[in-house]
Amino acid sequence: MSDEAFTQLVDEHYVSLYRFALSLARNASDACDLTQQTFYLWATRGGALRDASKAKSWLFTTLYREFLRTCRRDDRHSSIDEAPEDSQELIDAGPDLVSRIDSGVLMDAIARIDEVFRVPLVLFYLEALSYREIAETIGVPVGTVMSRLSRAKGLLRAALAALAKGGEVLPFEGDGERRVMS
Amino acid sequence: MNNQEAKFRLSAYRPGGDDASDPAMIEALEQARRDPELGAWLERERVFDAAVAAKLSGIAPPAGLRAAILSGSRVSARRPWWRSPALMALAACVTVAIGGGLIAFRARGGVPGGLVALAVQDMLHGHHEGLIPQLAPFQGPLASPSAALDKGMPFDSSKLGAADCRSLSFHGHKVFELCFLRGGLVFHLYVMPLEGSRASGPVYSSADGLSTASWTDASHAYVLATKLGISALEKVIQGG
Question: Where are the transmembrane segments (chain B) (predicted)?
Fold first, then answer.
């Protein structure tokens, strides 16, 4: 693969891959490492991919598998996998609320969602992959992706509503924050 | 198709409209056009989805990540690692053979992936201690114009911890950071103990106004960073 082609591939996808990695790893340092490792694997294996149009799916799939292989941590956060009973909360967490919060708070809310739902949700909102490609990436049927997306959005609204009500905001180590400084 | 099934499908309809030509979506969208209640629901969903997508797109990668990914591509007179069949084969073999944590770092046969990005991020946002007396045994030799870092560190790196040198955590491993002056110019050196390493580099890269050189010896990985350009780094690395 030429330098120019590799640079072009990086430029097209590294931002979205980093955001996906950040949603998985929940800290910038690990997200950087995951993103770099993905392109490293591309350089060693992905360059042989015959269908160039599959490069994007290959990169997201590889990043996700690398996360599962090396970066999955014991969950320090209390994940949300059930929407609250109070349905009014879900209605309150609308686009107005989303527009008022900053990206870090949104990531806090997303980080509180169980990984099973969080992964397709973030891939969906990155808009880089179709639901069919998301299904390939995480290795589940298309119907499962739709089901998880439907539920994930409810969970996101619940998490946002909880934040809006002054509920616990668990720290999310995002851009500009180092993990540990001693 | 009833409204419940249409909602199920439309939950996967991207807010930017990229799925408009998908047959499953076309049918559901048509249903939403016919049914005002479903149409109103879809409109609310799309507004919410667009707001979340827009907010997510506001998250920017750390400065230097792109350069770190491309490390090697701008190395003068050196073939980038992804174009070196021997290095790729070696790295692939080792990567398959062993995995995880520090071992995975070794598999790449050089500076661990992410270390340069960490250094760049720390350069931009870290709270550096500057020149302090307790670190003089390290900062002093680094300031000497005759010290060529590619010939070996002019101090005992294993004593950095005992000297209470500032450090960062990188996948559970300490990375020590030292500021020093050479010819009145400021440099930052990052030192990561790397057991069982082998000599590689230096690899130079430059982006976003920052330049880095990264290399390894038998026991450490190093990143030297500055805002002064690659030529300034080369003088420190090569001495003189």
Answer: 86-105
Threshold 0.90, pTM exceeds: no
**B221: nearest Cα among B113, B135, B90:** B113
Across chain B, mean pLDDT equals 78
CATH 3.20.20.300 fits A101-166, yes or no: no
Residue B151 contacts A where some CB pair is shorter than 8 Å: no
Q: Which residues on B lie below 8 Å from A127 (Cβ)?
A: 14-16, 18, 53
- Find the domain containing B30 and state its range: 3-109
Residue of chain B minimizing CA distance to A46: B82
Residue B197 to chain A, least CA–CA distance (Å): 19
Residues B55 and B162 in one domain: no
pLDDT in tens, B206-221: 876 788 999 988 889 9
The nearest CA of chain A is from the CA of B136 a distance in Å of 20
Predicted-complex ipTM score: 0.80
Q: Do A103 and B58 touch (CB under 8 A)?
A: yes
Measure the CA–CA gap between A90 and A127, rounded to whole angstroms.
23
**Quick one: pLDDT at residue B109?**
60
Q: What is the largest CA-CA distance in chain B?
A: 80
Instruction: Report, at the CATH architecture level, how domain A1-75 is classified.
Output: Orthogonal Bundle (1.10)
The segment(s) of chain A belonging to CATH 1.10.1740.10 are 1-75
Give the residue on A whose Cα is nearest the Cα of B53: A125
Residue of chain B whose Cα is closest to the Cα of A23: B56
Domain boundary among the residues B44, B79, B109 is at B109
Boundary (domain end) residue, out of B109, B142, B167:
B109
With contacts defined as CB-CB under 8 Å, which chain B residues touch A45? Answer: 92
Which sign, positive or negative, has the C-alpha torsion A13, B90, B92, A52?
positive
Listed in order, the ranges of chain A carrying CATH 1.10.10.10 are 101-166
Residues 6+ apart with CB under 8 A from B123: B64, B188, B210, B225, B227
Give me the total of CB pairs closer than 8 Å, taking one residue from chain A and one from chain B. 168
* Of B13, B28, B41, nearest in space to A125 by CA: B13
Residues B83, B187 within the same domain: no
Mean pLDDT throughout A89-115?
A: 75
Q: What is the mean pLDDT of residues B40-59?
A: 91
Is B104 found in the same domain as B16? Answer: yes
Least confident residue range of A69-83, B78-92, B188-202, B205-219: B78-92
Phi-psi map region of B177: left, alpha, beta (phi>0 left; psi -120 to 50 alpha): beta
